[in-house]
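Hi L.,

You mentioned the student needs an example of a multi-chain input paired with its predicted structure. This one should do, with 514 residues in total across all chains.
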Amino acid sequence: MNNTSSSTTNEVLATIMSHRSIRKFKNEELTPFQIETIVRAAQMASSSRFMQAYSIIGLTDPALKRELSEIAKTPYIEQNGHLFIFCADLKRLTVMGTEQEKQDMRMMLESSYLYQIAVIDTALAAQNAALAAESLGLGAVMMQSVNKDIRRLDQMLALPEYVVPLFGIAVGVPDQQPEVKPRLPLEAVYSENRYPSESDMREQIEAYDDGMRHYYQTRSENNRDACWSRSHIDLLKMQLPVGSMTEYLHDKGVNRS
Amino acid sequence: MNNTSSSTTNEVLATIMSHRSIRKFKNEELTPFQIETIVRAAQMASSSRFMQAYSIIGLTDPALKRELSEIAKTPYIEQNGHLFIFCADLKRLTVMGTEQEKQDMRMMLESSYLYQIAVIDTALAAQNAALAAESLGLGAVMMQSVNKDIRRLDQMLALPEYVVPLFGIAVGVPDQQPEVKPRLPLEAVYSENRYPSESDMREQIEAYDDGMRHYYQTRSENNRDACWSRSHIDLLKMQLPVGSMTEYLHDKGVNRS
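Structure written out for the whole complex:
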């Protein structure tokens, strides 16, 4: 469980290894310089075939932020220094094409193959953005919850075909200092040449669950009796209506075939 | 086009802003310490609901690396300091469940909703890994091309249900020093409160295309006459057989509904 003890030999590793999600921010807006730095950092991530298949939208309109926060029951969607919405974007690739070319591109644009590439591009950029923010002394949290009512968010942002919001990142001056959360044992995540055996995996998860139970019971805020594997099994058994996401993706022209 | 001039006020930003993909490595293997540092850095990325829904497999078997390199016609799949394969992994979440629970989880595991979360988790971790490598003075390149024959790679790594290889990262001591590649104008990627208008987008892409034509003509290696938007339109018009990816995902039990 002692993941954070790996030697942090430089400032980059020190920033990466001390990451924790910040969910409470001081009432201070980001400066234009901070916003620009974060976006330019995002842009420097690798991109498959250099497609740069993402868009970032800063949601600054207080009424829209409030509405989104109320839909998601997530106060830090409203209360933060800046809210970035990261969207997978295959639309930009088509803009300079003729009408005929737009038709001809449709088959590939609608494929799960290309949508997956856009999702990966977007997340790579987002992780750079989060680290850039943290390097500036800011805190950040990534949130799926901005998508609680994904069609409403789509409408708010006037997203065209082939553009899909994936998650938000709230950034700001931290007003809390939570502990770093212990990660899975390295051996549960990394193996050489082949996927680990089921029995090895069970053993590692059991050890992790023990450690996480202790972490959840003793951490400074939001204590509870929980362990990692059980909480996920209980969640996944709930059969939530996640199909609405699939329908939305189809309506946006992506992940269709 | 002058994206890289944004002030790099700390080592994290300096590392992020000087990223370039390295495709030629010296014949030096990574040390166990370097490999561990990279994996632990990957693990510290944010993860949706803390699912940690990814696995990383180091491909070290020379015969397998050679085979994969030949399939993909990508020499740096074989010639590098270390090859990491990043996989979306929803399997680990199920391991501690009973047989009945595994059945009950199936609906959510098969959803595009959950698969998308796993893809995002994997890419967030991967970007941390790449930056950690770069911070150690190593170079890296992310590659979809390890998936050229995705079923063969799946078989090589003995990947179970719900585990899907997304891309590789080759890491090593750089044996080339390519230029930093100019990114899209910030305004083409970032907007506030709503997606940019089509006419604004066209204007920004035109300016970028001009700059990129110059970049491709004058860069130190692999010169060519190309521009950003046209090369992607031509690629996407090709109607490549990308549906085989969709079938593979369905066979793995993900992105089904």
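You could point out the following to them. Residues 1-6 of chain B have pLDDT under 50 and may be disordered. Chain B touches chain A through 119 residues (CB under 8 Å).

Best wishes,
N.
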